[in-house]
Design a protein that fits this description.
This protein is of the alpha+beta class. 54% of the residues lie in helices and 20% in strands. The protein contains three helices and five strands; from the N terminus they run H-E-E-H-E-E-H-E. The longest helix is centred in the N-terminal third of the chain and has 39 residues.
Length: 135
C-alpha cells in the first residue's frame, strides 16, 4: 500500500513536470514567432506596412505638401497624388501640383521646390516618387 501511494505521488510529480515543460516550450515557441515576424517585417531600416497604413501615409504626405505650399504663399494649390502598384507590390507615386503663381518661378526655383517636396515623401522600401507641375 505504501508503495502504491509512493508511485501515485511520483506519477503526479512527473505529470506536473511534463505539463510545466510543455507550457514552457509553447511559450518559447510563441515568443519566437512574434520576434521572427517583427524581424521579417523590417527591411533595410524601412518598415513594411499594410494597405491601410499606406493610405494613412499618403494622406499625411498630401497634407504635409499642402501645408508647405501654403507657407510658401501658394494657398489653395492643387495637389494630386496618383499611385500605381505592380504585381510585385512595388509602388510608384506621381504628385502633380498646380497654382498659377508657381509658373512665375524660374526653372531653377521650380526644381528646388519640387525636390524639397519629393524629399518630404515617406520612405518605405519599394516606393518611388515623382513630383512635377501640371503642364
Amino acid at each position: 500500500m505504501a508503495d502504491r501511494m509512493e508511485n501515485k505521488g511520483l506519477n503526479n510529480r512527473v505529470r506536473k513536470e511534463a505539463v510545466f515543460v510543455m507550457v514552457t516550450v509553447l511559450l518559447i515557441l510563441i515568443l519566437w514567432l512574434f520576434i521572427s515576424e517583427t524581424v521579417m517585417s523590417q527591411t533595410e531600416g524601412n518598415i513594411t506596412v499594410d494597405e491601410e497604413s499606406f493610405l494613412q501615409l499618403e494622406d499625411d504626405y498630401i497634407g504635409t505638401v499642402k501645408n508647405y505650399l501654403e507657407e510658401k504663399g501658394y494657398r489653395n494649390s492643387g495637389v494630386t497624388l496618383t499611385r500605381v502598384v505592380d504585381e510585385s507590390g512595388e509602388r510608384s507615386y506621381k504628385m502633380v501640383l498646380h497654382h498659377k503663381n508657381m509658373y512665375k518661378l524660374s526653372n531653377e526655383e521650380q526644381e528646388v521646390m519640387l525636390e524639397e517636396i519629393a524629399a518630404m515623401a515617406f520612405h518605405v522600401s519599394g516606393c518611388k516618387f515623382q513630383v512635377k507641375l501640371l503642364s
